[in-house]
Amino acid sequence: MEEITRLDNVQDYCDLFGIETLHPLISVVDCDKMPPIRHSRRLYNLYAVLLKDTECGTMSYGRSQYDYEKGTVLFAAPGQVMGAPDDGKLHQPAGYALVFHPDLLRGTSLAAAMKNYTFFSYNASEALHLSEQERQTIDECMRKLQAELMLPIDKYTRALIIDNVKLLLDNTIRFYDRQFVTRETVNSDLLAKFEALLDDYFQSGISRTKGLPSVQFCADRLCLSTNYFSDLVKKETGISALKHIHLKMLDVAKEHVYDKEKSISEISYALGFPYPQHFSRWFKKMAGCTPNEFRTTR
Question: To 5 degrees, how large is the angle CA 50–CA 53–CA 59?
C-alpha cells in the first residue's frame, strides 16, 4: 500500500519541501523557488490553497471550450487527502501554495465563516480555472501575505494575516461564480440530468423504501462532489438542491393526491413516509394545506 504523508502542521509542510518556516501557523510558498520533488499523496490536517502555475491552454467542458492562460487552483481542508502517486521521478513545482492551521483562526469571525467556503470540499476535477486577470489577483493576495510574513511578528500581525486570507477566499468565491456562469451550457445539461434523475427515482418506486433522495445521492449519481453540486444548483436556479428535491417530490405528491382513488395512507407509504401524519405535516408545510384540503379544492 502506498504511504500517505501526514501534514499535521505548518512545520511539517515546510520540512517536506525544505523551506524556512516564518510563522508557526501559516506559510506562503513560492513553488518556483522550491527544489524538484517527488509526487506523493498527502493527508492535510491544514487548510491549503494550491495555485498550479502551468499553461492550461484550452479547457474543454462538454462540447464547449474556454481559454485560460494559466492557473488552476485546488483546495484542501483538514482531514482531506490530496496528491498524486509517486512515479519515481522528480517534478519541479510552479505557482504558489498557501497553507494555514485551523488554530490561526480560533476566536475570529473568519473561523465561523469557513463553512461558507464550500470549495474546500470540491473534488480536484472541480478545480478553479483562472483567467489571466484572475490569476494576477490571486498572485497579489499571495504576495501580500508573503510580505506580511517576512515582517517581525507584532500585535497587528495576526489581524492583518487573517484579513488577507479572507480577501483571497472571498475572491475565490467570486471567481467560482464566474466559472459557473462561463459553464452555463454544461450546467444546463447537468440540471437536465438532475431533473431526469429525480423523475426516474420517483417513477421507479425507489422512494417507497428509500424515502426522499438526499443531495449527496444526487451528486454522486452526477459524479460531482456534494458541495459543488449544491453551489451549482443554487447559482443556476436560485434555490438550494435540497429545496429543489422537496419541490419535485411535492409535484409528485400532488399528482398522487389528485387521484381520489388513492388513500392518503397509500400515497404516504408510496413516497416513503413511515406514517400518514408525517406526510400530511410535510405536505402542509410545503403546499400550505393538508392533502385532504388540496384534494377537496381540486
Answer: 100
